[in-house]
Write a structure and sequence with these properties.
four-stranded mixed beta sheet; mainly beta
């Protein structure tokens, strides 16, 4: 596993990801990327505006021994697509 250095903290796009990016295709044709690790009770980590799931690498590393972590990238962020408008919730 690679590690994240203090220098890398300044630009998430230079980070070496600790976890494999996976994808799920949803019915409206969008593709959502996510990363997961660990076993145990599940914790879902949702990033804020203008970020992506990579911001959780350090947190996921510390939670991994005791929890199953899932960190999706919201539509239009990270490697998730944003091809269609949201018409309803």
């Amino acid at each position: 596993m690679d590690t994240i250095t203090e220098e890398d903290d300044y630009n998430i796009f230079t980070w070496k990801t600790l976890y494999e990016t996976k994808y799920i295709n949803i019915k409206n044709g969008e593709r959502i990327s996510y990363r997961e690790c660990g076993k145990g009770e599940t914790i879902v980590l949702i990033h804020g505006h203008y970020t992506c799931s990579l911001t959780f690498d350090k947190l996921m590393k510390s939670l991994e021994p005791n929890f199953h972590c899932i960190a999706p990238c919201l539509r239009g962020y990270g490697y998730s697509s944003y091809n269609n408008k949201i018409l309803s919730l």
